[in-house]
Amino acid sequence: MSVVAPRLTLERSLLKEYDLIIALDEVGRGALAGPVAVGAAVMDAAGSRRRVPEGLRDSKLVTERRRPEVASRAAAWVVASDVGWASAAEIDEVGIMRALGLAASRAIGAVIGTDVIGESTLVILDGNHDYVSAVHPSRLQVRPVIKADRDCASVSAASVIAKVARDALMVELHAQHPAYQWERNKGYASPEHRAAIREQGLSPWHRASWTIADAPTLF
């Protein structure tokens, strides 16, 4: 079955009311180790008239081999893009939803200064829950959109940009803790990852507050 490419239908409609859209998508929410990342991609009316980059899809629908190339095209296509992070320690301290808000707030601050955000800027994010407003210091207009990562090209761009950045970080961290095989599982709960946790305990990069395995925490 062929995969339908994301479109700009929603963005074009919204950009009749707003000057800017900041599209957000998260990566790493369900991982056992590593930070959560939120990608941000800025779209304006002029950008919404440009052709969607070839191969752009929700990051889960792009093969790992192709993702860096697609992410590069996506970053060149949008007005601005960046990735915000919240660490495993922050997830342990404040919980995953507030950590998502922290990462989103950092991503927004990286792509557009918070002092220029006004009523003419709209944030759209994938899903059905606004995890941004409770954390971000500015009064933001936020619109959750179910399946936005699949259907909205700007959110697909944010998704693949964040996925490539987080995967690259987990490959770097693998060199410090090779037993967990993060270069393969990117911190998610593969059988090999869980087995390594039972044998090695938890690293400082694991989300220690989560029920991961019956293993001690190693710091």
UniProtKB/TrEMBL annotation:
Residue numbers binding a divalent metal cation: D25, E26, D126
Annotated InterPro entries: RNase_HII (IPR022898), RNase_HII/HIII (IPR001352), RNase_HII/HIII_dom (IPR024567), RNaseH-like_sf (IPR012337), RNaseH_sf (IPR036397)
EC number(s) from the headed UniProt entry: 3.1.26.4
Domain RNase H type-2, chain residue ranges per copy: 19-219
Top-rank taxon, per record: Bacteria
PROSITE patterns assigned to the protein according to its UniProt record, in alphabetical order: RNASE_H_2 (PS51975)
Record-level GO cellular component terms: cytoplasm; ribonuclease H2 complex
Enzyme class: hydrolase
GO BP annotation list: DNA replication, removal of RNA primer; mismatch repair
Compartment(s) where it occurs, according to its Swiss-Prot or TrEMBL record: Cytoplasm
Keywords: Cytoplasm, Endonuclease, Hydrolase, Manganese, Metal-binding, Nuclease
Pfam families linked to this entry: RNase_HII
Cofactors that this protein relies on: Mg(2+); Mn(2+)
Catalytic activity: Endonucleolytic cleavage to 5'-phosphomonoester
Cofactor annotation remark: Manganese or magnesium. Binds 1 divalent metal ion per monomer in the absence of substrate. May bind a second metal ion after substrate binding.
GO molecular function, one term: RNA-DNA hybrid ribonuclease activity
Similarity-based family: Belongs to the RNase HII family.
Job description of the protein: Endonuclease that specifically degrades the RNA of RNA-DNA hybrids.
NCBIfam families: PRK00015.1-3 (NF000595)
Record's protein name: Ribonuclease
Species the sequence originates in: Microbacterium bovistercoris
